[in-house]
Design brief:
The protein is mostly helical. It is elongated, with a radius of gyration of 27 Å. It starts with about 20 loop residues before the first helix and ends with a helix.
Length: about 260
């Protein structure tokens, strides 16, 4: 038996027997198997890196061969974009994220009720959770969706500190002018010194968690996982809530004296 001769003619791409020339594959691959290896700064643009089959846990854990050079994986997509991102662009994004997070978190000042009963529920339970999340909300999105825009852990800490100081400033302006307008000088001094320090301290703890998420990309060579930093962010919320509860209790005791 003599197998039929191949009818592939290089001049006629329609006769290519490659699986990548199948109709359902043509629109999904910009590179042909004969084009490998690809330029390291180029990847097939029609594939979704976040849905790459090569990153599926069942495949990645059992994979015993090299990933094809033209295969799109999430980490390859990350590396290409990291090489394309300049230091200037990275810090511009960092500054914008810090200011935007601070502005969003400052809106939580409007959540502070003047009635004592509502103040306990909101200040102790709700406000710490919302504030700590909003202070790093945009950096969280960047670390999860566009981690190459951050090139150093210092940028994450910068975002946390800037947004914390913006929140503390907004809270002090509101509370000192509305709630504590006739308060003793030591209470005003406490608000001006201790409260910003608390905001910064909690943001630093949350930032450590976010740094762990960002570094997980390099250590795992895969997509970021928010659970890497969940404990630190939760700890920041708890510390903030405990402080608010202690401050309210102390204030009630001083009023009774």
């Amino acid at each position: 038996f003599k197998p039929p001769e191949s009818e592939f003619h290089p001049a006629d791409p329609s006769t290519d027997p490659s699986v990548f020339d199948e109709p359902w594959m043509k629109n999904r691959h910009t590179a042909r198997m004969t084009d490998r290896p690809l330029d390291p700064n180029q990847l097939p643009i029609h594939d979704d890196p976040e849905k790459s089959v090569w990153d599926e846990p069942g495949i990645a854990s059992a994979l015993t061969v090299d990933v094809p050079d033209d295969a799109v994986t999430w980490f390859r997509w990350y590396e290409v974009n990291a090489r394309r991102t300049s230091v200037l662009t990275s810090w511009q994004v960092t500054l914008a994220a810090a200011i935007a997070s601070g502005l969003f978190a400052s809106l939580t000042v409007l959540m502070m009720p003047l009635h004592i009963h509502a103040r306990v529920t909101v200040t102790v339970l709700l406000l710490p959770i919302v504030q700590e999340l909003l202070k790093i909300a945009i950096p969280i999105w960047i670390c999860e969706k566009r981690p190459w825009l951050i090139q150093s852990p210092i940028q994450i800490i910068f975002c946390g500190v800037v947004s914390a100081l913006m929140v503390a400033t907004a809270a002090n302006v509101f509370l000192i002018s509305v709630v504590f307008n006739n308060a003793p000088a030591w209470i005003v001094l406490w608000r001006l010194v201790v409260c910003p320090a608390l905001q910064v301290f909690c943001s630093l703890i949350a930032s450590i968690g976010l740094i762990r998420v960002w570094r997980g990309v390099q250590t795992r060579r895969g997509m970021p996982q928010l659970y890497d930093g969940a404990r630190w962010i939760t700890a920041a919320m708890l510390i903030h809530g405990v402080y608010n509860a202690a401050a309210l209790m102390l204030g009630e005791i001083l009023i009774q004296l």
